[in-house]
Amino acid sequence: GELYKTKLLKYQYNLVIPYVLYMDDFQINNPLGTHTFSICGCYISFPSMPQHLLSKLDYILTAAFIPSKDLKERGNEVSFHNLVEELKILEKGVEICVQKSVQKVHFILGVIIGDNLAVNSILGYVQSFNSKRFCRVCRRKKSQMQFDAIQHLDSLRNQENYNSNVLENNFQETGIKNKCIFESLPNFNVTENFCFDIMHD
């Protein structure tokens, strides 16, 4: 897409491979009993791979397993710190030797996907879809969105209004609980690198 093409301009003459970060919670132990343990699973896949390999488990890599309890108690910044540091190293580039030739490969995060609840939580937005402003793409109120039939371009989130909303520190009015930790990656912008959940939306 257009977003990826703009990111490629920074890496002239180098190989750049985009990846998708998928996150969702799952429960272990007895899912029907009272003693379940919930874990946030983080996985990486490469959309530029040949189509017949995309869904094979050999090509979906485990990035992290984080106890959901830690996410609630410690927050995203602490819980995802190690993962983000690893992703920064991949973005700076890794040297790979292919047929006696060393090639630097940069891996850049394209989008974070998952169900709406998981993605809103990880990106720092409100998790309740009954809140006044629950959308991670626009800043319209729920009461307005119930009657919208067109897209209101002036209400879309952008880096400028996102940063000012983070500084406001009023999630009931802005829909943002805290700044997205993945914004510390050089090529990730929470207002540009977004994806809809096609199974739920």
Description:
It contains eight helices and five strands, in the order H-E-E-E-H-H-H-E-E-H-H-H-H. It has helices at residues 2-8, 68-74, 76-79, 81-92, 116-123, 142-145, 159-168, 171-174; strands at 15-28, 37-45, 61-67, 94-98, 101-113. The two termini are 21 Å apart. It is globular, with a radius of gyration of 18 Å. It has a five-stranded mixed beta sheet. It is an alpha+beta fold and 201 residues long.
Structure summarized in a few sentences:
The chain has about 200 residues and is of the alpha+beta class. The protein has helices at about 1-10, 70-75, 75-80, 80-90, 115-125, 140-145, 160-170, 170-175; strands at about 15-30, 35-45, 60-65, 95-100, 100-115.
Please describe the structure with a list of short key phrases separated by commas or semicolons.
201 residues, 24% strand, 28% helix, five-stranded mixed sheet, single chain, alpha+beta
Strand fraction equals 15-25%
Helix-strand pattern: HEEEHHHEEHHHH
- Kindly report the average pLDDT value: 87
Q: Radius of gyration, Cα only, in angstroms?
A: 18 Å
Strands, count: 5
| Low-confidence parts | none
Ends distance: 21 Å
**Which structural category do the helix and sheet elements fall into?**
alpha+beta
Treating each run of at least 4 consecutive H or I residues as one helix, how many helices? 8
Indicate the percent of residues in helices. 25-40%
Question: What is the 3D form?
Answer: globular
Which sequence of strands runs across the widest sheet?
3-2-1-5-4
